[in-house]
Amino acid sequence: MGTSWQRCTFHFKRNIIDCMPKKGAEEAKYLLKRIFDAYSVEEARKLKDEFVER
């Protein structure tokens, strides 16, 4: 079984940012970078939850 969808992280992050309001975009970019740079899946999920809350 293969993957049905795949994007490089650069374009995936860019797509997310393009869909967000421009106000607070710098903070959002920083928070997204932290998610993708996380050392573990658990840490990434925690950071993702924080990102969604904000």
UniProtKB/TrEMBL annotation:
Keywords for this protein: DNA recombination, DNA-binding, Transposition
InterPro entries named in the record: Transposase_mutator (IPR001207)
One Pfam family in the UniProt entry: Transposase_mut
The family this protein is said to belong to: Belongs to the transposase mutator family.
Role this protein plays: Required for the transposition of the insertion element.
Protein name as it appears in the record: Transposase
Organism expressing this protein natively: Caldifermentibacillus hisashii
Organism taxonomic ancestry: Bacteria, Bacillati, Bacillota, Bacilli, Bacillales
